[in-house]
Amino acid sequence: MTSTLSGDDPLSDCNESTASSAKQVHGTDSSLQLPMAMQSSKGKSFEHGEGSDHIQAYAMLDFENFTFYVQTMQILLGRLVEGDTSTDSLDIHLGQQKAISRRHAKIFYNFGNQRFELSVVGRNGAFVDDIFVENGVTLPLKDKTRIQIGETRFMFILPTDETVTDSNGKQIKPINPSDAVSLKTSFSNNHATSSGSSREGSSTPQRPKVIDSKSSTVPKLGDDFVNELRASAEASVVKREEAAAAAAAARNGSQLSMVDGVNALSAAGRAQQSLQSAKDKLKKPLKTVKKVYKPEEIPEEYRTKPNFSYSTLIAECLRQKGTERGMSLSEIYKGIQELYPYYYYCPDGWQSSVRHNLSLNKSFRKVCKEGKGWLWGLDEEYFAEKERLKRKQIELANIKATQHLQTLSQQFQQHPTRPESQSSSSPAPESNSSESSNSKLSGDTKKALSYLQQELIRLTKDRKMYDKETTTQILTQALAMTIAQVNQAAKNAGIQGFPLVTLIDKNPAHITKILSAALNAATIQVTKKKGLPPPSSSPAPPVSKPVEPAPARSNIQQFARPTPPVPKPLATSGSIKSISSAQAGIASTTPSPSSSSPIPSIRKPQYYGKPSSVAPSSSRSINKPVQQKQSQYDNESIQLQFQKFSQPTPPAAPVAKPKSELEDLDMKLMLDGMDHDKDTSKELDLDKFLAQHSGEVELDSKKRTLDSLDSTKDQEPDPKSSKIE
DNA sequence: ATTGAGCTAAACAGGT
DNA sequence: AACCTGTTTAGCTCAA
Length: 725
Hints:
19 strands, elongated, DNA-binding
C-alpha cells in the first residue's frame, strides 16, 4: 500500500493494468510478476485516440506493487483457477490462496447511489478499512478505502484532479462513471479522442454532479444504449465493454493474441460482430447527452410540465427576461428554464420545439443579428391577438358545453320520471300526464336552471380548464347534485313546492355555496373517473369570495412565476453544478413511467422516439392539459343522474340524515366535496334555512356575479392570468 | 371524416 | 470537426 499513483515503483513499466483482463496482483505470491501479455497490452485498448498518451479511469486500485485503473463499471476480483471458465471473467486475480474465492468480490459503480460499491461474495469475507465484512455484504467505497481480501491488500482511490500523473509521467484522466457512455463510446470509436469524454473529469465519481448539456457532449450511441446502461449498469456495461474491447481487439488485429489469455475476448467472430456493431453505432450523429433525472430527484413542484404552449413559454420568457435588443436562442433556453424549472430537469428535445416555434410563429420576430444567430423579440400585438382568439375559442366551447347541458336539463325537467329503460337517445316521449303541471314547472324551473347554469359558469370560469366533454360532465353533475341536495333538504324539512326556486329567490348565496361544493365534488368525481389530474388540492374558490381566482390558477401560476426557483437553475452552462447534491443525483435505473400516472409525477418527460427510453414513452401534446377520451357521459346517464337526485323521497325521511348513512355514493362524494370547503360546510345550513323558510338575502348574488364577470371578463392586463388556456 | 393547432423529430444548411 | 442556430418538412395527437 505504499505505492501511490505518482509514487516510484520499480515495476513502473508494467505496473499499469486495466480492467480488460485478469491481472495477477498479489504481492506475496510467486505470481507477483506481471505476465508479459499484460505488459504488452498495457493501455493498448484503453488509450483513446491515436497518439493519445493518457489513460482514462474512473478510479484506481492501488496494490502494493501496481496500480489498477478501474475503467469499467464493474470489476471482478477473485482467484483464477486454471481450467475453470467461471474465473475467465475475473478482472483481477488476487492470488492463489485458498482463502480467496474464485469470485470473491465485485467493485462496481452504483448509478443509483452514484458511488462505487464493494460487494463481497467470497465465503471468507473481506476487510474493509480493517473491519471485517462478511460475504453477501455490499458497502460503499470512498476514496482511500482499504480493502483486504485474503492476504492481498489494496486501496481504492478516487481521482481528484482533472489529470493525475502516474509514475511514468503519463496522464491519467479521471472519468466520472456517469459519463460512462462517453467512455464506452471512445472504446468503440476509432476516432474518438479522450477530450470529449473526459471533459467532465473534474468531478469525482462520488460527487453527485449534473452533466452540463454543453460540456457533457459525447458521441451518441442512441438513447437505448444510454438507458440500458443506466437501467442496468453492471450487466450492460460488462457487455458493452466486451463488445468494445472486442472491437478494439479486432482493430488491433495482430495484437489480439497478446491479450491476456484469461480474457473472454477471444472469439474472432464475436469480435468482428462487435466491431461492426460499433461501427454502425458510429454512423449515428453526435448528440448531446444530458443527465436524466429520476422523478424522485426532481423537486415535486417541477415534475409536471407547465401547462403552456411553447409559444406562451417563449413569449413569457421574452417578456420577463428580454431586453430591447431581444434575446438570443441560448438566452431563451436559459430563461425558460429559469421561469419554468421543469425544463431544467426534463430531457432535451424541448429546445428543438422552441426553435421550431420561434421560426414558425409570427409572434416572434428577429430583432437583430448577433454572432451566428439572431436576437429574438416578441410581437406583443400579434401575440395578444392570437391569445385573444384562443381564449375566445375556449369560452365558446364552454358556452356550447353549458348549452348542451341546458338542453339536457330541459329534457329532464320535461320528463323527470321517465323510466330508466327508455333510451335517452330516442326522441323524448310525449308526456302522458300532468302536462299542465310540467309546463307550469318549466317556467320557474327554466329560470332556476338558467340561474344555476350562470352561476356554474361563473364558478367554473377561474377553474382549470378541461375539454368540452369533461366540462360538460362536471357541470352536469354539479347541477344534478345541487338539485338533489336542495330537494333532499327540502324534503327533509317537509317543504312543499320547488325548493330550488325558493332558495334562489330567498338566498342565492346559499345556492352559490351548494353549487361550489357540488362543483368540487363533481370535478373530483369526473376527473377521477376519467383518470384526469384533479384540478388542485382545493378546487373551488372560496365561496365567500367568489371573485377570487380559483386555486387551480395559482397552481398553474407556480410555473409562470416560481418564486424563486428552488434550485437556481442553469445560470450558465457550468452552473448546473450549483444544484444541491440532493437534487443532482444521477439517473441510473429506469424511472417509473409517469405519463399516465397521476400528479405529481412527471407528466410526459419524453425520451424522444426511443421506446426503451428512461422516460415514459407516451406521446405528444405534453404542453397541453392532460386530456383523455373516456367513457361518454351521455344523455342517458345525465338523465339518470337527474332522476336519481330528484326522486321524490319518502315523506318519512329522517330529518338531517347523517352523511355517513347516505347510501348514495355520489351524494356522499358531494358532501365530501363540501367538506373540502370548510367555509361551505360550516356555513351551509340548508336544512335549517329551509326549515325556517325565512332566510334573508345577505348578499346580492346577482350583483356579485356581474361584478365578478366584469373583473374576470378580459384579464388582458395581467399576462399571468391570461396565460391559462 | 376533416381540419387546424400544437408537439416532436429529423434533415439540412450555414455560421462559429 | 463539432457544435449551434435557424428553416423546413413530416408525422403524430387532440380537439373542434
